[in-house]
Amino acid sequence: MNSGTFTLQPHIRRLWQADQPSLVDHFQRLDTASRRLRFGGLVSDAFVKDYAEHVLSLDAVAFGAFPDGKLRGVAELRFLLKVWPWSAEVALLVEPSWQDEGIGDALLNRLISAAQNRGIKKVHMQCLRENMRMQSLAKKHDAVLDFDIGEVEATLDPPWPTPMSVYAELFG
């Protein structure tokens, strides 16, 4: 359980194949409401397990937040390289008991840096219309929000890479 608001950035790092068991555990700990908000609908335990086993792929970069030494938040940047200019999709999730602690913001910052450093010009985030946390997070990062019947798409425009953005990604 969390111990209050962070005064320091939570420990965030890139996830690797060795983190696979932690990823599966993280996604399986999610309650029904969190799963619905993350995946846009009700999903089974088998779906969540299969998804978690495939998060780490060649067309993605994933970061994890470890505020208490255990994986509590995951952020994914999936490349859409068949689209020009290069684009990516972002998905992130923080376990309910760790929300409102700055973890989602820190994870999104890392994803934006990763997109910036890879020359990604458009970053897209989709969420259900009732997911106010994601919408607030997107607005905080100057995203343009497009509202549809049941969902919202946020679009961010990362700046060009800089030596500082590369350093920030490499060393957090």
Q: What this model shows, in words?
A:
This protein has a single domain (12-171), classed as Aminopeptidase, CATH 3.40.630.30. The protein is an alpha+beta fold and 172 residues long. Strands 1-2-3-4-5-7-6 form a 7-stranded mixed beta sheet, sandwiched between helices. Helix 1 runs antiparallel to helix 3 (45-53) and helix 4 packs across helix 6. The two termini are 24 Å apart. Mean pLDDT is 87; it is low at 1-8. It has helices at residues 20-28, 32-39, 45-53, 103-117, 132-140, 163-171, and strands at 12-14, 60-65, 73-80, 87-94, 122-128, 144-147, 151-156.
Give a brief rundown of this model.
The chain is an alpha+beta fold and 172 residues long.
Q: Which descriptors would you attach to this protein?
A:
single chain; 172 residues; alpha+beta; Aminopeptidase; seven-stranded mixed β-sheet; 7 strands; 34% helix; 24% strand; globular
Q: What is the string of SSEs from the N terminus onward? A: EHHHEEEHEHEEH
At the fourth level of CATH, the homologous superfamily is Gcn5-related N-acetyltransferase (GNAT)
**What is the residue-mean pLDDT, rounded to a whole number?**
87
Q: Major β-sheet, in short?
A: 7 strands, mixed
**How many E-type strands?**
7
In angstroms, what separates the terminal alpha carbons?
24 Å
**What's the Cα radius of gyration?**
15 Å
| Named CATH topology | Aminopeptidase
Proportion in helices: 25-40%
Number of H- or I-type helical stretches: 6
Strand content: 15-25%
Q: In the CATH classification, which architecture applies?
A: 3-Layer(aba) Sandwich
Based on Cα principal axes, name the global outline. globular
CATH class category: Alpha Beta
- Spatial sequence of strands, sheet with the most strands: 1-2-3-4-5-7-6
> Which segments are poorly predicted (pLDDT under 50) over 5 or more consecutive residues?
1-8
Domains (count):
1
By secondary-structure content and strand pairing, the structural class works out as: alpha+beta
InterPro entries: Acyl_CoA_acyltransferase, GNAT_dom
Organism: Litoreibacter janthinus
GO molecular function, one term: acyltransferase activity, transferring groups other than amino-acyl groups
Domain N-acetyltransferase: 10-169
